[in-house]
Every structure is written in structure tokens, then in C-alpha cells.
Write a structure and sequence with these properties.
heterodimer; A: 276 residues; alpha/beta; Rossmann fold; 2 domains; six-stranded mixed sheet; four-stranded antiparallel sheet; 7 helices; 10 strands; 22% strand; disordered N terminus; B: 274 residues; mainly alpha; MetI-like fold; 12 helices; flat
Chain lengths: 276, 274
């Protein structure tokens, strides 16, 4: 498999994502304050930071989940642009992988979960079969296609989530701690899978995680965030390491240390704020 | 029930072993059922020995009354009349209750609008509407069906609302970003996810219907199990009352079983996997 360059000028398939001075409020609570960020087309961007720092909130804004109404509270100020267009709501071009596999439809088999998007787009018959077979195979679940999510392991369920999103050929994939609930072994395997899928699909990815090594392993760039309320972007680190990456090499360790210091400072701030 | 379904989906061991395991389990539960029945009958017999037939008929008295009522066709026609009223009233309760519950569960504004009425009427027992039902709907079938409908509709509505409001918001978000609009979300996500609560509502409503059928038939029905029980009192035939009560109990049990079988056969994936 050809390694992709981290040179962003070559990316074509994915959409760019831009946050321009974005603030997000939940009623009177200011979750994110003045975040500005551009994610290049086809880039793999990792977002790290302490719990409750607004990582997921930023992701939700890009997904279009925060309309400020009914089921979707959270008022977004500033601009969130995908491919230059303002985000007005959820869209098939922006796939979302959640941390919890409770987002899968438990009454549908793996195949039926993956079929959900294509069926809505009116794809039927042999074409539907070919398409779903392809994506089920892509995540390595051929043998489990007719099983229900309750009969799968945590890692397999996350694969179903990936297939269900990728079958729609999204330009952007937003991942909210997708591997957060998995054991270390499965996690490492899934990191490889996600890297491979990203290289095959060329989509733009924003990947939220707590795990620094995971961020170093996957991200073209890694962003740290400041602690909330009023969270923002703290630092941006470019990860100039060849893929597949080895987190035990000196530059990776150095980056790990820098990220750890960033996060530690913010965690400390949160603790102090809570003590007050 | 869920274990059986799980058993079916998780093909564990060989098919022959599964069948054997299944048979052993069913024989066991049938044995316990028969034992429980025998204990009940013995207790009934012992109590009835203390009293005369007018006060407390024995199992034998009830059996001969059963044969008497069965032979002249009273029992069959009463059972059919009651069963028909229950099915129509309950069915209407489902047809109205489920959609209303879906809409109320989905739209907070509709919920707030209708909630006071639901919360008020669900505490007013159907028996208090017997007189009004007769004044408004006459002494015919309509008044009984309306009372059964009344006793079913609120519980179905409330259960459905609980189902809709309990749908995991992640599923709704996932559906939206997979391209589902509001209508598809309703039919492809919210309704399937609410099936367990809707089924619970249906079963509770069926129970309520049986509680109500006697009151509905007491006042103005010539036929039906409730009417049979009520008229038997006038004739001083306590053993007929026993037959009516036992038949109601069995009918209720059978109806509940039918619902469960339908759920297991047709809706298993919605109930077992949730």
C-alpha cells in the first residue's frame, strides 16, 4: 500500500472544514469560545484535551447536530464551513462515528445497518448488495453480516459503525472517541484499520481522542484544546512522521511529552476551577 | 421469552442438542404448571367442603355447571360476545393510542397540549362512565366497545410516549447524518425502537380490557361473560358465576399468550435485541 504524503496540497477527495471564530453555548453555559481552525481536504486531524473541554461539541457543530432547537440544543455563533458552505444540519456527506455503539440500530443486522444510508438514497437490488458487501468486507465483517449488534464484540460494533458511515462515501468523517471503549489490543488493531480506510477513501477526518499515542499515530496534525468553560484551541502540532507510525521512536516520544504537558496544564486548570 | 429468542439467534451447539435442551425445559415448566393447578384444585375442594353450593361451589359443582352452560351454547356465545367486544375496543385503542403516543412523544408542544387530559382521564375508572356510555351510545354494542376503548387507549398512549422518549438520541443523530429526514426517522428508527414499550402497553391494555368488560356488560348486556356472571347472581347460581370467572381468566390468559406469540414470531428482533 502506498504511503500518503502529509503534504496537504495533494489531497483532493475530502472536503475542507473551517471553524471561524466559533463559540457554542448551551443556554447560559459557554462551552467553546472563539475557536478558529481550518482542516485541509483529506487531512487527518486529531483533537485532544481534558474531558469536558468541548472537543465533542466542536465535532457536533461540524456534524450539524447543534441547531439550537428541540432535540439539538446548543447555539453556534461564528461560522462552521464545510467545503466553503455553512453547515445547516446533518448531511450524508459528513459521516459520524460515535464512541458508543448504542448508535447502531439493534433490531437490524450488520448488513441492514450498513444498508440504512444507501436505501434512503434509493439504491436497491443487486447494486445495494454489491455496495454493502464491499463495505462490510472493507471492515472485515463478511462472516458476521447477518448477526445483530448485540451478538458482536465492542471492536466489531465499531467496525459496523465505520462501514455504515463509509458506505455513503462521505467527504468528511467525524469520529468522537470511536475507540474509547475498546481494550488496548483491539484498539491498536482498529487504529491500523482506520488509517487504512482513510488512505483508501481519501476523506477528511476529525478524530477526537483522549489517547495521546493514538493521536500521534493517526493525525497529520494534532490539536490540543484548553479547558472549558469557554474552551478554545491551545496548540497545533504537525506530525511529520512516516506512516505507518511507530510511537516508540524519539520524535514520537518528544511529541508525546509536549502533548502531555499541554493536557496536564489544562487538567490542572480544571481542577483548580473546581476547587474554587 | 428473551432467552428463547437469544437461543434461536445464537446458534450454540448442535441443533439436536438444542432441541433436547428445549424439550427438557418445556417439560419442566409444564410439570410445574400442572402441580400448581393441582394444588389450587385441592385447596378449592377443601374450602368448598365447609360450605354449601350456594355460598361456595366445589370444583365438581363448577364442572357440572360448565357442562350445562356449554351444552346449551350459552358459554360459547357469551365468550364470543365478550371476546369480540374486547378485541374491537382494544384494537381501536391501539389504532388511536399508538399514533397519538408517537406524535406526543416526538413533539413536546403536542405533548404539553394533550398531557392534562391524559393525566386526568387515566385516573377516572371506566366504570364511572358506564352510565354516560349508555346515555350517549345506547344499550347496544357501541357503549361496551367504547368503554373497552376508553380503558385501553390511555395506557397504550402513555407506553408509546415512554418508548419514543426513551429512544437513544445517538440513534437519532446517526439516522440524521445517514440521510434520514423526519418521516424516515419516525418509521425507520423511532417506531422500531419503541416496539418493546408499545407491546407492553398493548398487554397492559388487554388486562385493563378484561377488568372493564364485566362492568361494561353488567348494566345493559343480554349476552357476554359479564352478563352471564351478573344474571347468575339473580338466579342464585353461584356455580355459574364461578364458570364465568374461570372462563374470563382463561380467555385473558389465551389472549395474552396470543400477543406474546405474535411478538415472538413477528417482532422478535425489535424486542430481544433492544
Amino acid at each position: 500500500m502506498a504511503l500518503r504524503s502529509t503534504d496537504t496540497s495533494n489531497y483532493i477527495a475530502g472536503y475542507s472544514i473551517e471553524f471561524r471564530n466559533v463559540s457554542i453555548r448551551f443556554n447560559s453555559f459557554l462551552a467553546v469560545s472563539g475557536a478558529t481552525l481550518r482542516v485541509e481536504p483529506g487531512e487527518f486531524l486529531c483533537l485532544i484535551g481534558p474531558s469536558g473541554c468541548g472537543k465533542s461539541t466542536l465535532l457536533s457543530a461540524a456534524a450539524g447536530f447543534l441547531s439550537g432547537r428541540g432535540d439539538a440544543p446548543g447555539a453556534v455563533e461564528g461560522e462552521v464551513l464545510v467545503n466553503g458552505e455553512p453547515v445547516r444540519g446533518p448531511d450524508v456527506s459528513r459521516g459520524v462515528v460515535f464512541q458508543s455503539s448504542e448508535s447502531l440500530f439493534p433490531w437490524r443486522t450488520v448488513r441492514e445497518n450498513v444498508e440504512f444510508g444507501p436505501r434512503i438514497r434509493g439504491i436497491r437490488g443487486a447494486q445495494l448488495r454489491t455496495l454493502t458487501d464491499h463495505y462490510i468486507a472493507l471492515v472485515g465483517l463478511e462472516h458476521a453480516a447477518d448477526r445483530f449488534p448485540s451478538q458482536l464484540s465492542g471492536g466489531m460494533r465499531q467496525r459496523v459503525q465505520l462501514a455504515r458511515v463509509l458506505v455513503n462515501e462521505p467527504k468528511v468523517v467525524l469520529m468522537d472517541e470511536p475507540l474509547g471503549a475498546l481494550d488496548a489490543q483491539t484498539r491498536s488493531l482498529m487504529q491500523q484499520e482506520i488509517e487504512r480506510l482513510w488512505q483508501e477513501t481519501q476523506s477528511t477526518i476529525i478524530f477526537v481522542t483522549h489517547d495521546l499515542d493514538e493521536a500521534i499515530r493517526l493525525g497529520d496534525r494534532v490539536l490540543t484544546m484548553t479547558a472549558g468553560p469557554g474552551a478554545g484551541i491551545k496548540n497545533v502540532y504537525k506530525v511529520d512522521l512516516e506512516r505507518p507510525r511507530d510511537e516508540t521512536t524519539p520524535p514520537a516520544i518528544e511529541l508525546h511529552r509536549a502533548l502531555k504537558d499541554d493536557v496536564a496544564v489544562e487538567v490542572l486548570k480544571t481542577l483548580k476551577a473546581q476547587a474554587r | 421469552m428473551s432467552t428463547e429468542v437469544t437461543q434461536k439467534y445464537l446458534a450454540s451447539g448442535s441443533a439436536a442438542q438444542d432441541r433436547k435442551w428445549w424439550m427438557v425445559r418445556h417439560l419442566k415448566s409444564a410439570g410445574v404448571f400442572l402441580l400448581s393447578l393441582a394444588i389450587g384444585l385441592i385447596a378449592w375442594q377443601l374450602i368448598s367442603l365447609q360450605y354449601d353450593v350456594y355460598f361456595f361451589p366445589s370444583p365438581a359443582d363448577a364442572w357440572s355447571a360448565f357442562r350445562e352452560l356449554a351444552e346449551d351454547g350459552t358459554l360459547a356465545s357469551s365468550t364470543i360476545d365478550s371476546a369480540r367486544r374486547i378485541l374491537i375496543g382494544w384494537g381501536l385503542g391501539m389504532i388511536v393510542g399508538v399514533p397519538v403516543g408517537l406524535v406526543m412523544g416526538r413533539f413536546a408542544s403536542v405533548r404539553r397540549l394533550l398531557d392534562p387530559y391524559i393525566e386526568f382521564f387515566r385516573f377516572v375508572p371506566p366504570i364511572s362512565f358506564v352510565t354516560l356510555a349508555i346515555i350517549w351510545f345506547g344499550v347496544g354494542e357501541a357503549s361496551k366497545v367504547v368503554l373497552i376503548f376508553y380503558t385501553s387507549v390511555f395506557i397504550v398512549t402513555i407506553s408509546t410516549i415512554a418508548g419514543v422518549m426513551g429512544v437513544n438520541s445517538l440513534m437519532l443523530r446517526a439516522a440524521a447524518s445517514l440521510g434520514a429526514g423526519p418521516i424516515r426517522t419516525m418509521f425507520l428508527v423511532i417506531i422500531p425502537a419503541s416496539v418493546p414499550e408499545i407491546v407492553t402497553g398493548a398487554r397492559l391494555a388487554m388486562g385493563n380490557s378484561f377488568l372493564t368488560i364485566v362492568s361494561a356488560e353488567i348494566i345493559a348486556a343480554q349476552h357476554g361473560l359479564g352478563a352471564l356472571i351478573w344474571k347468575s347472581r339473580n338466579y342464585g347460581r353461584t356455580e355459574w358465576v364461578f364458570v364465568g370467572i374461570i372462563t374470563l381468566g382463561i380467555l385473558g390468559f389465551v389472549f395474552d399468550r396470543i400477543i406474546r406469540v405474535i411478538v415472538r414470531r413477528g417482532l422478535a428482533r425489535y424486542v430481544a435485541n433492544n
